[in-house]
Design brief:
The protein is of the alpha/beta class and 309 residues long. The protein is built from nine helices and twelve strands. The chain has a five-stranded mixed sheet with strand order 3-2-1-4-7. A five-stranded mixed sheet has the order 10-9-8-11-12, with helices on both faces. α3 crosses α9, α5 crosses α7 and α6 packs across α7. The longest helix has 25 residues.
């Protein structure tokens, strides 16, 4: 199979991971993602790949995990919260720039594939991978293969409305997609920070809220309790539809150990079952999991790279 390179093209960082065919990580490094600059973003991807291949002395396959999905109408990227990528022929541009075939999948699909292949959900039949970071996304893997769907949007959990909303949650914050009250506006890092500011008047990043709550700050503890219930509601809706064996949390907010205890205690209120056997787990591969999943795209018979005609 040879060496496999995966790129995790995130909103704030772009990371390269190179794996051998047994999944051993040979290289992992990252650079800041250029903000609002498509050409510079492409150049960053090329630089990371060129430097890794120069160090290894070998040409590799390349998979890319990116926010959004490829449109089957225009063959351009759509639905990305990195807005400079939308409407751009990312796949064709990267293939031309790198001089080889490239496979592209949604970053949450890559994360889910990584954890289902040799991570926290290895061997599970149905896996739902969650990204809780700058944005909120989801990816689905069934029997080891990522599920894309005819519209290329399977698992786009973050752009559904927050379920069972309270009066004060309607209509919800505005979302970049043009609607109000999307799950992403409540559960992303910025959404969590904004909700805390509305509650307390304090402006804190999500990680600082978690730290302060653990230190006993009452207002931060209140914000954490609200987030607990919102995350439980949102995941309960996924369980009601998909009934996954395992849900794996990824993204920066997945580092908070609290969610793995509080959310399963709460989601039974909303799941349409007498018991819930779905497991909620942290990622085995941490924040490099998306890049690993992008590399694994070349290990699978299914390719999410090109829209069907």
């Amino acid at each position: 199979m040879g060496l496999m390179t995966g790129i995790d093209l995130g909103g704030t960082k772009t990371e390269v991971v190179v794996l051998d065919d047994s999944g051993i990580e040979l290289i992992r490094r990252r650079l800041p993602t250029p903000q609002g600059d498509y050409a510079a973003t492409l150049a960053t991807v090329k630089r990371l790949i060129d430097e890794a291949e120069l160090e290894l002395g070998e040409r590799t396959s390349v998979g890319i995990g990116t926010p959004g999905a490829l449109s089957k109408v225009t063959r351009c990227l759509k639905n990305s919260n990195s807005a400079c990528l939308n409407g751009k022929p990312l796949l064709e541009d990267l293939q031309r720039l790198l001089g080889r075939p490239v496979r592209i999948a949604n970053d949450a699909d890559c994360f889910a594939l990584s954890e289902a292949t040799d991570g926290a959900a290895a061997g599970a039949g149905i896996v739902f991978g969650v990204i809780l970071g700058t944005g909120v996304g989801g990816g689905i893997v069934v029997n080891g293969a990522p599920l894309s769907g005819p519209n290329g949007i399977a698992g786009e959990w973050g752009h559904n409305p927050l379920p069972w909303p309270l009066d004060e949650e309607r209509p919800g914050p505005p979302c970049y997609c043009g609607k109000h009250g999307c799950i992403e506006t409540f559960l992303s890092g910025p959404g969590f920070s904004n909700a805390h500011r509305r509650l307390s008047g304090q402006t804190l990043e999500a990680g600082k809220i978690v730290d302060a709550a653990e230190g006993g700050d009452d207002l931060c503890r209140r914000s954490m309790a609200i987030y607990d219930d919102r995350l439980a509601r949102a995941l309960a809706q996924v369980i009601n539809i998909l009934d996954p064996d395992v849900i794996v949390l990824g993204g920066g907010l997945s580092n908070c150990r609290r969610w793995y205890e509080t959310v399963p205690r709460l989601w039974g209120r909303y799941v349409f079952s007498d018991r819930v056997d779905t497991r909620l787990v942290p990622p085995r591969h941490g924040d490099s999991s998306g890049g690993r999943g992008a590399a694994w795209l070349w290990r699978r018979e299914i390719s999410l790279a090109s829209p069907r005609s």
